[in-house]
Amino acid sequence: MTPEDLDTVMAARFSCRGFRPDQVPRDRIEAIVATARRAPSWCNAQPWQLAITAGAETDRFRAALRAEAAEAPHTPDIPFPTGYSGVYQDRRRTCGWALYDAVGVQKGDRAASTAQAMKNFDLFGAPHCAIVSSPAELGPYGALDCGGFVTAFCLAAQAQGVATIPQAAVASFAPFLHRHFGIPDDRLVLCAISFGYADPDHPANGFRTERATVADIVDWRG
Ligand SMILES: Cc1cc2nc3c(=O)[nH]c(=O)nc-3n(C[C@H](O)[C@H](O)[C@H](O)COP(=O)(O)O)c2cc1C
Question: What is the CATH number of domain 16-81+122-205?
Answer without folding.
Answer: 3.40.109.10
